[in-house]
Amino acid sequence: MNPDFIKYQAQTSPYPLGMEVSHAIGSYIYDTNNKKYLDFVAGVSACTLGHQNKRVNDAIKNQLDKYSHVMVYGEYSQSPAVEFCKLLAEHMPEPLKKTYLVNSGTEAIEGALKLARRTTGRSQLISCHNAYHGNTMGSMSVMGFEERKQIFRPLIPDVDFITFNNEADLEKITTKTAGIILETIQGGAGFIQPENNFLQKVRQRCTEVGAMMIVDEIQPGFGRTGKLFGFQNYDVVPDIVVMGKGMGGGMPVGAFTAAPERMDLLSHDPKLGHITTFGGHPVIAAASLATLQEITETNLMPEALEKEKLFRSLLVHPLIKDIRGKGLMLAAMTESAEITNKVIFKCQDKGLILFWLLFEACAIRITPPLNISESEIREGCAIILEAMDEVLSE
Ligand SMILES: Cc1ncc(COP(=O)(O)O)c(C=O)c1O
Questions:
Q1: Which are the contacts of 76, defined by CB distance < 8 A and separation ≥ 6?
Q2: Cα(135) to centroid of ligand 1, in Å?
Q3: Is the pLDDT assigned to residue 1 strictly greater than 90?
Q4: Ordered structural domains, the chain, with CATH
């Protein structure tokens, strides 16, 4: 591992993988020893179209040759951002037609929480146990995993928690609630899908009491579950949709979308209700537009469901107890963190990149680029099975 990496760049865990990246193309990453790794993680669901996708790269280069940052967002009309928001609106149900562009998932969550308070004039926020919504103070306040936030308290007040998929808990959403935020598939918790029309029941309760239903699509979003957004699988229309990660085809970005009259509340009383220097950055917006065009003009979304079937048919092994998730947001579950760790490290040695989930230690993350090929899926699954055979025989 490069000693300067440890010495000068701040680490986020005591055990960084530390691979020295040379270059990456398609579904593969190459290290500085020219070892090739098949990427089943895609920058943790961010590299929607793999690495160095031509359409995304061309959009970035073309935009760089025209202009880059010229003004803070909202003051000038800049076509990549405008075109992105317009195309997104075409793929959103009524009334979700206006989008605020920011720089990351967590910032989009902050904006959405503020919008819920601004819209309702209420303060209470509700989230779910084991939810992950980001790592800034507001998003961390709605994180449902005490161990990771205790040391940073006090966080924002008036936050309450319910259990995902627990219908009885919905009574906690009342006329005091500004908004409930929930992932449409709980990511860090272990790729948990809504059951028994849970999202529809949340929608109904929010409508009854006038609370905002905020869905965090940062991980399921942008085609990964077979629809552009996870909520579109469950026949609900939320009030605020939050996105990030895969939106920029590997570039740093976030956004939240709501009804125009709601979104406009951020521009008055007070004006500048949410501002950010780089939101709507033309180069990032150009990459996001190219990514959205590619996802919506091709068969990548329905193909994600076909690829899910292939993964499920190939990943049959005594060590795999379950495969959770939908489309290309999959988690292979083993019975212990120890087995999961061994499999992930062995696969890395064998040239396949896998990763963990934030709070569920038995899960093996499988979130490849949407345009991964069938033969690449077969190649990677064969490596997983080989690694599992070795773990089993140890
Ligand atoms: C569901 C969900 N919400 C929010 C975030 C935070 O996004 P970011 O890391 O871009 O701030 C993530 C990132 O993993 C996420 O998976």
A1: 70
A2: 8
A3: no
A4: 3-52+299-393 (3.90.1150.10), 55-297 (3.40.640.10)
- Please report how many Cα atoms fall inside a 13 Å half-sphere around the Cα of residue 96, on the Cβ side: 23
Write the residue with the smallest CA distance to atom 13 of ligand 1: 134
How far CA 340 is from CA of 41, 192, 219, 270, 329, in Å, comes to 15, 18, 21, 50, 17
Closest CA to 220 of 199, 192, 256: 192
With a CB cutoff of 8 Å and minimum separation 6, the contacts of 12 are none
Q: Is 79 exposed, middle or buried (0-12, 13-18, 19+ CB in 10 A)?
A: middle
C-alpha distances (whole Å) from 113 to each of 109, 126, 200 are: 6, 10, 21
d(CA 198, CA 173): 14
Nearest atom of ligand 1 to the alpha carbon of 358: 14
369 and 48 Cβ atoms separated by less than 8 Å: yes
Cα separation, 325 vs 306, in Å, equals 14
What are the DSSP E strand ranges found in the chain? 21-25, 28-31, 36-39, 98-102, 124-128, 159-162, 177-183, 212-216, 240-243, 254-258, 322-326, 329-333, 352-353, 363-366
Question: Ligand 1, residues 245, 251, 355, 357: which to mutate, most atoms within 8 A of Cβ?
Answer: 245
Tell me: the pLDDT tens digits for 287-340? 999 999 999 999 999 999 999 999 999 999 999 999 999 999 999 999 999 999
pLDDT digits (tens, 9 = 90+) for 190-225: 999 999 999 999 999 999 999 999 999 999 999 999
Continuous H helices in 52-161: 54-66, 79-90, 105-120, 137-141
| Both structure tokens of 143 | 């994180």
Angstrom CA distances, 190 to 130, 165, 359, 365, 371, stand at: 9, 14, 7, 9, 23
First to last CA, the chain: 27
